[in-house]
Amino acid sequence: MGVQSIGMPVRREEDFRLLRGKGRYVDDVREPNEAHGYVLRSPHAHARITALDVGRARAAPGVLCVLTGADLDRRGLGTLMPAVRRRRRNGTPAFVCPQPVLAGDRVRYVGDPVAFIVAESVNQAKDAAELIDIDYKLHSRRMPRRYGTITPETRRSSTKSASGARSIAPSPRPIMSSATRR
What we know:
16% helix, 3-stranded antiparallel sheet, alpha+beta, Aldehyde Oxidoreductase, domain 3
């Protein structure tokens, strides 16, 4: 590859191979005795897990293992912690929030991992995930009062940013231009 100038197209070496269908991906690799995993995730943003029954999933055909947060805690594998501890500017250790690998007694966001299923095929793992019985007790979703409330007036006056996100909270004071701010 020669010297590039600004605005010149970059010739990529992999394009010809990928466009002709000759690409090789991880999913194309097959190993003997390989297993596949599937993560069952929470559909709720803020809830307590009141019951979790994985008995039928463990008995499903092709399933090798079903792990829950309680299983990982018993084995001492339940929490991710950073390998390198961070420090504050003054040299004291920074606060580190432990991140559970699988949810234990509550889920904190939509998509929070609840169970991990290992099976002989991906489809068997997905089928076993459907057999897991989970009962959630939903918590109220309260926002602090400072964010305001959504009313028909604020919904109509909402604006859309360049990224597509909507801003619905009304501004507490009018926006002033730099000319009027003296």
